[in-house]
C-alpha cells in the first residue's frame, strides 16, 4: 500500500551547496532534504543553474511544429505497431479519447555499439529524433539538457545519501553516464473546447492521471505554473504549490525499496485542468546491472530488509505494473 505522507508542506531548498565543496553546507542541505522527504515527500530545488526559460521555449516550439504524420512516424509501439520502441518516441493523443501527448527520450550515450543495445536488453533504445531540417535546435538542446539535469540529479542524490547517513557518493557510484536508464518526458496538456472524458478519483476529483508512485530513483520535474498535482497525506489529498523557477523533486519507489520506506515514494496524482501547460519530468535511473544493498537508515528495520535486486529487473517490472494500473500514457 502507498505510504500516506504526514504533511503537504513543500519547502524550497537552495541546492547549490551540493554542487560545491563546503562539507558543512552540504550537511545543512542534507538535513533540509531529509525533513522534506520525511514530510510531504516533495521539495523544490532552487539555485540549480539550469535555464528553465529556454527549456520551455524549445519544448513549446517542438509541440507547436510537430505534424500529425511526424507524431505517428515517431510514435512508440503502443501507437505505431511498425515501431518497436516502447520507451523512446512519441506518445500520441487520441481525439475523443485521450488529450495528453508527449515525447520521451533516453540516454544519448546509447548507440548501436553499446553493449546493451547489441544484446537487445529490454528498456535500452537508441533515440529516434524528428527531422532536423524542420526542428533545427531540438535534438542538440535535448541532449544537452539530458546531461544538465542528470548532473543536477546526481547532486541531489549526494544530498540524499548524506541525509541517510551514507557517504555522499553512495548512490552516485551506480549511476553512470554510460549506462543510466534515465529518461526525459516532454509532456503537453492542451486546452480543448471539447475535452475527452476524464477519470474521477474515489473522492470525486476529476483527474488527468490517477494516483501513482514514480518508478525511479528520484524524479526531477519542471512544469508550467498551473496548479495540478496533489499528494496523499494522512489528512487526505492536498494540493502541491507551483513554481516558475524551480524543480520539484521526489523520491521514487527504488529509494523507498532501498531505505525500507524511510524515504517513501509519495503517492500523488494529476488533477484535471483544462489549460495549455507543460510537464517535463526527468526520471533518474541507475544502470541495468546496478545492484544496491537495501538498508535501514535509522538502524531499526521494521521486519527483514528487502533483498537486493538488479536495477534493470526492478525497472522492467515497475513499468509493466504502472501501465497495468493506469494505462498507457
Structure description:
The protein has helices at 23-37, 52-65, 68-74, 115-119, 138-163, 253-258, 311-326; strands at residues 12-14, 42-46, 89-91, 101-106, 183-189, 199-200, 206-212, 218-223, 229-233, 236-239, 247-251, 268-271, 277-284. α1 (23-37) crosses α5 (138-163). It has 329 residues and is an alpha+beta fold. The protein is globular, with a radius of gyration of 19 Å. Helices cover 27% and strands 20% of the residues. It has a single domain (12-326), classed as Sandwich (Jelly Rolls), CATH 2.60.120.330.
Could you report the average pLDDT, rounded to the nearest whole number?
A: 95
Oligomer, anyone? single chain
> What portion of residues is helical?
25-40%
CATH superfamily: B-lactam Antibiotic, Isopenicillin N Synthase, Chain
Q: Which structural class best describes the helix and strand composition?
A: alpha+beta
Please tally the helical runs, counting DSSP H or I stretches of 4 or more residues.
7
Kindly, what is the distance between the CA atoms of the first and last residues, rounded to a whole number of angstroms? 22 Å
Note the main sheet.
8 strands, mixed
Strand content: 15-25%
CATH class: Mainly Beta
Alpha-carbon Rg, integer: 19 Å
Poorly predicted residue ranges: none
